Predict the structure.
Amino acid sequence: TSDGNGNLTTQEIMYPAFHVRLTSDMSVTSNTWTTITFDTKDIDTNSAYNTSNYRFTPAISGKYYIYASVYFVGGATGGTSYHQVGFVKNGSTNIGENGVDFRNTLGYGGSAHVYGVMNFNTTDYVTVRGRISSSGSPSVNSSRERTVFGGYRIGS
């Protein structure tokens, strides 16, 4: 913004920012929405991600670009019919669910991705949840940083 005298004030954008990942495979129950337990911070510029409750709570209001990728493993070749991932804002509002449907050609597993722009106040928080339908022993895979969650502020 300008003060009318040629002086500009800029917003601090792309801050706060965070990027977290899963470092150990996570067992899940088939057909059950489960919070993904991202346990390792690679970036957390404002200490806004909590590895105990798996929440991102920005202390600065604004619009944020948020993303997540979750790699599901069905545990049985040809036994996975679908997997899904989504955001949960403030514990109850589901936002941006996305998934892969294998019902016509059963698969083994793979990644589901979700991303979008969210408005946050200083007390809002977001988590990531996922589910898989599998005839095997399903899990969320942590190898090669396949399961990640992150975001950053893009404006007020």
